[in-house]
Design a protein that fits this description.
InterPro entries (chain A): Brnchd-chn_aa_trnsp_AzlD
Radius of gyration of chain A: 19 Å
Largest interface: A-B, 76 and 90 residues
Keywords (chain A): Membrane, Transmembrane, Transmembrane helix
Number of domains of chain B: 1
Largest sheet of chain A: 2 strands, antiparallel
Helix content of chain B: 55-70%
Radius of gyration of chain B: 19 Å
Order of helices and strands of chain B: HHHHHHHHHH
Distance between the termini of chain B: 34 Å
Number of helices of chain B: 10
Strand content of chain B: under 5%
Oligomer: heterodimer
Number of helices of chain A: 4
Largest sheet of chain B: none
Strand content of chain A: under 5%
Protein name (chain A): AzlD domain-containing protein
Organism (chain A): Arthrobacter nitrophenolicus
Order of helices and strands of chain A: HHEEHH
Structural class of chain B: mainly alpha
């Protein structure tokens, strides 16, 4: 019972975070400095999401097949491969490395 | 987390911390897509890493909108569908990592970042934020390293005065700067054919 209660609280709070963002008036972001921050922040967030997905395992760091996926994706992107090919290269490399025994 | 023996309140706190970044995404997407009425409330539900990244990666406002809704609805439906499949089929499917699905996520986020790395400054920002993320991972709860990177990027944005046409264009109006500097979108189209997104802004 108590578990369901906390689950519902978590759901409500998760939605509340998102909605709070949408309730910030757009004009607040309409000056050169905020536009610039939106630009730097998007780069920072994407770089961060890439690394979290590549090396984070819960609260610890892990060097596993995902690093191979990262390298394969970088090579594919350097060769100007289309998005879908890049994603497939990442998945394929990780799967192959695991097949070879590197976790 | 609960399966690992954690309490309900601890799981709720971790989930809420993890979701904090969606507030930043919401703020950006609200300025970018300008949703009105019910779209604001449905859009909020669909605001996640993937829909934000797909949308802000586009230069054209119509494509930004299409990217957000396609990724948001697509993931919402498929995520829940396959969670149900996983719950019902259970161990019969084996480990999804065996199929390299986590490697696909890494590649997808790098592919969304890549077109923005068009100069020394965006590369430097990406490297600094990537390093900050990796350093933060062992010390803070999951989800927070992304917030650390967001703060680092915001501080860089606040104090820097570099050129604004190196992948750092405003996402509120991605066309304004280019019209002023080169009076058209010739450069944009040239780049677009190579899979880059000049003028994509944020």
């Amino acid at each position: 019972m108590s578990l369901w209660f906390w689950l519902l609280v978590a759901c409500a709070l998760a939605y509340a975070w998102k909605l709070v963002g949408y309730l910030v008036p757009a004009r607040f972001l309409e000056n050169p400095r905020m536009s610039r921050i939106a630009g730097t922040m998007t780069i920072g967030l994407l770089a961060s999401l890439t690394m979290v997905n590549a090396v984070a395992s819960g609260q610890s760091l892990a060097a596993d097949a995902r690093l191979g996926a990262l390298a394969a994706a970088a090579v594919a992107l350097a060769l100007r491969a289309p998005f879908l090919v890049v994603v497939l290269a990442g998945a394929g490399t990780a799967a192959l490395l695991r097949l070879l025994g590197w976790n | 987390m609960v399966g690992g023996g954690g309490s309900g309140i601890a799981a709720m706190s971790a989930a809420t911390l993890l979701g904090m970044r969606n507030g930043i995404y919401g703020m950006q997407l609200n300025a970018l897509l300008r949703p009105t009425g019910w779209r604001k409330y449905v859009g909020a539900q669909l605001t996640i890493d993937e829909s934000t990244a797909t949308s802000t990666g586009q230069a054209d406002p119509a494509e930004q909108r299409r990217g957000f809704w396609a990724a948001g609805i697509g993931i919402y439906v498929l995520w829940n569908l396959f969670t149900a499949v996983g719950a019902l089929a259970g161990a019969g499917l084996g480990d999804p990592r065996q199929w390299g699905l986590d490697g696909a996520a890494v590649a997808a986020f790098l592919a969304l970042l890549w077109p923005r790395l068009k100069g020394r400054e965006p590369v430097a920002i990406a490297v600094v934020c990537a390093v900050a993320t990796v350093i933060a991972v062992p010390f803070v709860p999951a989800g927070v390293p992304i917030l650390v990177a967001a703060v680092v990027a915001a501080v860089i944005g606040w104090f820097s005065h570099g050129r604004s046409d190196e992948g750092l264009e405003p996402d509120v109006d991605p066309y304004r700067e280019h019209h002023r500097h080169d009076g058209g979108h010739g450069g944009r189209h040239d780049g677009g054919h190579h899979g880059t997104v000049p003028g994509a802004g944020a």
